[in-house]
Amino acid sequence: MPFNAIEVAKDFPILSRTIRDGKRLVYLDSGATSQKPEVVIEAESNFYRLHNAAVHRGAHQLAEEATDAYEGARAIAANFINADVDEVIFTKGATESLNLVAYAMGNAVAGNRFHLTTGDNIVVTEMEHHANLIPWQQLAARTGATLTWLSVTPEGRLDLSNLNQVISEKTKVVALTHQSNVLGTINPLDEINKRAHDVGAVVVLDACQSAPHMPIDVKTLGVDFLTFSGHKAVGPTGVGIFWGRAELLAELPPFLTGGSMIENVTMTTATWAQAPKKFEAGVPNMAQAVGLGAALSYLTKIGMKNIHDHENKLTSILLNKLAEIKNLKVVGPTTTQMRGAAVSFTLGEIHPHDLGQYLDNQGIAVRTGHHCAWPLTRKLGVPATTRASLYLYNTEADIDDLIKGIVGAEKYFG
Ligand code: PLP
């Protein structure tokens, strides 16, 4: 069946509710969190209703069913990014995954390839979400490594003119976002991966804003670790995916220790299970993982290319219409070339919070603020922006309503 966003939207119960005295809900905040289709809500609640038990433990039927459902979800997630199943780790979300990898590196002792010390270097970019910045600041502080970064051009692209200086022989880790949650910019990974690997560094990719929106194949992407959050990919909250190359996961020390992640334990020592278990201490977020499995199956069935093409078409329409509003300035690329469907802008002197509130009164949900990327908004010289972020269930009617809302706000505040 050809892709039809109006039909897709019917799968999401929340999208048929009204808000603010009967207004149609125009949900343009999927960059913060996506809405959930009925199949995901059902999968999570059915787990509790029918199969709930601690996975990998009990010798009874429910434990067996729960384990099958949990491991089934892992297989779906692996398929979603074309990974080997043992390379896929369930976390609480991208924030936890990025802390996991940073803390795990901090646990590495001398001789381990992830051991960092004075004289080593960690590279990030100026467009990172705080989730992919602060864990690296902290790791640098704990180990004595330096933190350097690739800057952002006024057009909202990464400045790669000094790539070979920023990523140097001292660099051990390069951590960057695939797509900026503020600018919508999609970063050119090939050049960065090549330089990082030439100097022996690993590349950690924050795919929060890309994996839910485009096909991802970790076998060709060229990065070493990758993460995304389930809740931005029509899945439940409290679950995310952390992927790493098998040989690197084998060498990476654990972050959290405790039950389920061990091979053998004595009163004074412990040895670790292999990945993925090594990184899943404790009874995991089983129902959420099963819900995420349903979410990724749902997206796969619709087709990630269809979703990407749909968003690309809508983004182009949105950018063209925004360009007609005189006082509006898009912060980030103004064409769909290497850009996704998160579109941030300023509107004359109107504060984004006022604009957001005005739009909310019209039934339009957008995000305003620094979008957890404070250094970036500072660099761009704006106190805050308004962001509309599109997903598979958005339609041209949503864009028309947003444009009407912006024009109305200009008159109201003008
Ligand atoms: N990275 C990016 C680019 C994001 O947009 C977000 C969330 O907005 C995160 C990381 C953090 O994701 P979470 O809060 O789901 O852990």
General description of the model:
- The protein is of the alpha/beta class and 414 residues long.
- It is built from 14 helices and 17 strands.
- The strands form 5 sheets. A 7-stranded mixed beta sheet has the order 4-10-9-8-7-5-6, sandwiched between helices. Strands 13-14-17-16 form a 4-stranded antiparallel beta sheet, covered by helices on one side.
- Helix 2 runs antiparallel to helix 10.
- Residues 32, 93-95, 129, 131-132, 177, 181, 206, 208-209, 229, 231, 372 line the site of pyridoxal-5'-phosphate.
- The site of pyridoxal-5'-phosphate (PLP) has 15 residues, from helix 4.
Topology:
Blueprint: H1 5-9, E1 18-19, E2 23-24, E3 26-27, H2 38-51, H3 61-80, E4 88-91, H4 94-106, E5 121-125, H5 134-143, E6 146-150, H6 163-166, E7 171-177, H7 189-198, E8 202-206, H8 218-221, E9 225-229, E10 240-244, H9 246-251, E11 262-265, E12 270-272, H10 286-302, H11 304-323, E13 328-331, E14 342-347, H12 352-361, E15 364-365, E16 367-369, H13 374-380, E17 385-389, H14 396-413
Parallel strand pairs: 3-15, 5-6, 5-7, 7-8, 8-9
Antiparallel strand pairs: 1-2, 4-10, 9-10, 11-12, 13-14, 14-17, 16-17
Bound molecules: pyridoxal-5'-phosphate (PLP).
Q: Supply the CATH superfamily name of the largest domain.
A: Type I PLP-dependent aspartate aminotransferase-like (Major domain)
CATH topology of the largest domain: Aspartate Aminotransferase, domain 2
Spatial strand sequence of the major β-sheet? 4-10-9-8-7-5-6
**Rg over C-alpha atoms, rounded to the nearest angstrom:** 22 Å
Helix-residue proportion: 25-40%
Q: What summary fits the major beta sheet?
A: 7 strands, mixed
